[in-house]
């Protein structure tokens, strides 16, 4: 199984980025997928997740209204649209895939696969 993130980079505060996660080696439509991030000196946190059924989503409070997660099962790809970026959004962003109930999708412990990450840096 491979999860490959792309789309990270350097952006000014208030700007936008779209991250992509291309999956291979698994039946993508059967998996809940999500984005997690880790900033220097901080624990990894769940940012946004989307279930494999019904498109149920989860967002951490700090990104609600600014970030949008989506998936295209035909392309085995997940996206994270990030608007109104803030310096505190600076982190390495990872995509993850797992088989779990929607109630658990904000917890990385329940995921089976994790990508290598892509750096997002937001300058003030």
Keywords, please?
single chain, 124 residues, mainly beta, seven-stranded mixed sheet, 11 strands
Helix content: under 10%
Give start-end ranges of low-pLDDT stretches. Answer: none
- Sheet with most strands: 7 strands, mixed
Task: Return Rg in Å.
Answer: 13 Å
Query: Beta-sheet strand percentage?
Result: over 45%
Order of helices and strands: EEEEEEEEEEE
What would you call the shape? Answer: globular
Mean pLDDT: 96
Distance between the termini: 37 Å
DSSP E strands, number: 11
Question: How is the secondary structure organized here?
Answer:
Elements: E1 2-6, E2 9-12, E3 17-24, E4 32-38, E5 45-50, E6 57-59, E7 67-72, E8 77-82, E9 91-98, E10 113-114, E11 118-123
Parallel strand pairs: 2-11
Antiparallel strand pairs: 1-3, 3-8, 4-5, 4-9, 5-6, 7-8, 9-10, 9-11
Write structural notes for this entry.
- By secondary structure, the chain is mainly β.
- It is built from no helices and 11 strands.
- The strands form 2 sheets. Strands 2, 4, 5, 6, 9, 10 and 11 form a 7-stranded mixed β-sheet that branches.
- Strand 7 and strand 8 form a beta hairpin.
- The mean pLDDT is 96.
């Amino acid at each position: 199984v491979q999860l490959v993130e792309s789309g990270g980079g350097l952006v000014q505060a208030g700007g936008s980025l779209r991250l992509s996660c291309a999956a291979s080696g698994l039946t993508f439509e059967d998996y809940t997928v999500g984005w997690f991030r880790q900033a220097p000196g901080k624990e990894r946190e769940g940012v946004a997740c989307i279930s494999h059924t019904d498109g149920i989503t989860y967002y951490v409070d700090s990104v609600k209204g600014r970030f949008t997660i989506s998936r295209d099962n035909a392309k085995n790809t997940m996206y994270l649209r990030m608007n109104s970026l803030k310096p505190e959004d600076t982190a390495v962003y990872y995509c993850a895939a797992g088989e779990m109930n929607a109630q658990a999708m904000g917890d990385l412990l329940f995921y089976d696969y994790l990508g290598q990450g892509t750096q997002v840096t937001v300058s003030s």
